[in-house]
Amino acid sequence: MTLDNLLGKSLEAITPDPASIQRLLEAAQRSLTDACLPILSSESRFDLAYKAIMQGANAALQANGYRTLTSRPGHHQTMIQALPRTVELDTSTMLVLDTLRKQRNVIDYSGDLVSDSMAQEALQQAEVLLQHVTHWLKQNRPELLSDRKR
């Protein structure tokens, strides 16, 4: 399935906006920085790392001319599962990110505890994803990055 097949169902077409993509990447970096704060609970660190993952996935999607329809369910799932098509992320890494998405849903709706190791895994995955997205943008869409990020 292509991303165009999802238009009107879970995606809409947009014109990639460098300023918007840059804001998402900077917000993701701030979320990562905060996720490293040891005074935060593991739940808060996990949430911030997950937020960074979503901001990176959103930047990747927007760089390719798409945005999720947030009025429809499953927009987080769409952003993550689109990563192999948007930034050529390997499927095994996408599956790990999708597992974190599922864990986040369970935690949010059940109140389950987040272990330190789970928070650390989310943080590591977020760091790797942001590096991957930034590298892909530099190689494939450098005009979408500000000069200081190239």
From TrEMBL:
One of its GO terms (molecular function) is DNA binding. It comes from the Bacteria. The keyword DNA-binding applies. Keywords: DNA-binding. This is DNA-binding protein. It comes from Pseudomonas benzopyrenica.
